[in-house]
Amino acid sequence: MDEPLTVPLELRVLTGPNLYFPRPAVKLTLDARGVMEADPATVVGWQRALRVRSTSVGMADSPARSEAAAELAAAVVRRSGGAINTRVPAVARGGDDRTVVVAFPFRRRGVAEHFGDAVAVAFERITREGADPAEAIAEVGSAMVGVEPGEIVRPLRPGVPVIAVTGTNGKTTTTRLISHLMQADGRVPGWSSTDGIVIDGVEVETGDWSGPGGAARVLADPSVTVAVTETARGGILLRGVGTAANDVSVVTNISADHLGLLGVHTVEQLAEVKSVVARITKPSGWTVLNADDPLVRQMRLVSRARPWFYSPDPENPYLDEALEAGGKAITVIDGEIVVLSRGLDPTRVLPVAQVPLTLAGTSRVNVSNVLAATAAALGVGASLDAVRAGLRSFTSGAQHNAGRLNVYLVDNLAVVLDLAHNEASLESLLEVASALRLPGGSLSVVVGTAGDRTDEAIHAMGEMAAVASDLVVIAGRTKYLRGREPGEMEELWRTGAAEAGVLAVIERPDELASLVYLLDLGLVDGSSIAVCALEQRAEMAAEILDRGGSPATADQIATRVAASA
Fold first, then answer.
1. Which run of H or E residues covers position 137?
2. Fewest CB within 10 A of the end CB: N or C in the chain?
3. Binning pLDDT at 50, 70 and 90, where does residue 258 land?
């Protein structure tokens, strides 16, 4: 053809297991306007020419038409494979803004990228320019003549056990605890997460390493004997998972977060993305799943590994489901963590009260995280004694779990700093801060989050904070606006509080100024302050210490919780 090759709207090389295939794949985003606007007879003609199995057409710009466009895109990939005498599997789905996403697996990068570009041209020629489908497909074959194969792309196949953790909330805390338990078992853990990379307790990189690069960096260290990888949504969607398989996968929960980004609009779609981690767990391994979350429980059906369900509630009926499938369960019975196996007496691990991370049992979220981490550690063969020792020695403070429900005491006030960035994590923060409020004390909350949360989420969080507290302080945001205008999120917080009937809210320029305001306010003894700490965690901790405060010990937390009951 005369026109030069154009490229798709996006061609993305996924170098590891991904949403579409358990091996490297190319993901194409194609302009589907030609299909979405075409008359039904034209769409049927394309379907027949490309031998599309489905004959659904739908009305223009309807969901059914989007599905038809996706089927056409997949058919173009498959027929183009025939033009180069290669069987090319393809999967496709409707995308955003009248696009389709189609993916196909590959071995060599050069061929894959050039083939993707050629397929995009063929799809455009057929659906936008009216070219004969047979001619457009033949042009793909011509375009591939003489293409350099390029490098072979293989996902990492580690020689050490890999524990991969995903979910919406609790990933970082759970991976931190698992890494600590591995150290207690005498191993050398390499841990990658949104906070950086830590090798055997020593931080070697800072920043967000929750993608495949983090896994690669950890596994490149010859001293590492077990890898613990936090696996985030973005990494899976943008590059794929960093390893070909894992020995233990952990899925903490699925809740509304980052919706509307990267083509993920519903919690069901988010669950599908996260399930990639469970899909690639070895059959000999364990898939550790939150039995309290129906979207997580269902991942057992897509995993070849043995199920290990966890729930703090021993009456959860789904725990038996894991046992009946030849798996295990872990729960809390009479205040003690126990492991359940079919036909055996429960294995007693440790009383919850002896695990500092649970904040004397007040943090339901951290009780769940402890169960998940314990199952993962035992799943890779850690000794029970080592797990017990690690659970006892992992603290809830910044030393071991910075930014996650860190409790400080200052002038008989309890201050809880937490990266509460969505509705579920704010609920957890408020739960703990409320449990630390003594009789007669008040609960104040400093709210703030990043700009990539939806308007509805920020509004809901504002209402939640107003309902649960006596005073709401909105921390102004200058960083993490993520495309929003200054002051835009503050208005959403205000309207959310107003939804709860609270109009008298305080605004301060940032998190530190908000905390200082509350500390200077003369709150009654026994009060609690909950702070959504995104930007100025270190500065706020320093302010507390400068005022004579200190991190709360496990004993101090337990004493305060008992006094507040």
1. helix 133-143
2. C
3. low
Compute the half-sphere exposure of residue 204: CA atoms within 13 Å on the CB side of its CA. 15
To which H or E segment does residue 199 belong? strand 196-199
What does DSSP assign to residue 311?
-
**Helix, strand, coil in percent for the chain, rounding step 5:** 40, 20, 40
**Rg for the chain (alpha carbons), in Å?**
26
Q: How confident is the model at residue 233 (pLDDT cuts 50, 70, 90)?
A: confident
What pLDDT digit, counting tens, does each position of 304-359 carry? 999 999 999 999 999 999 999 999 999 999 999 999 999 999 999 999 999 999 99
What is the separation, in whole angstroms, between the first and last Cα of the chain?
78
Distances (CA, A) of 53 to 49, 56, 68, 88, 407: 11, 9, 10, 16, 59
Neighbours of 244 (CB within 10 A): 18
**Which tokens go with 484?**
């929003």
pTM of model > 0.85? yes
Confidence of residue 7 (pLDDT cuts 50, 70, 90): low
Q: How far apart are CA 386 and CA 228, in angstroms?
A: 17
Burial of 486 (0-12, 13-18, 19+ CB in 10 A): exposed
CA dist., res. 6 & res. 75, Å (int): 19
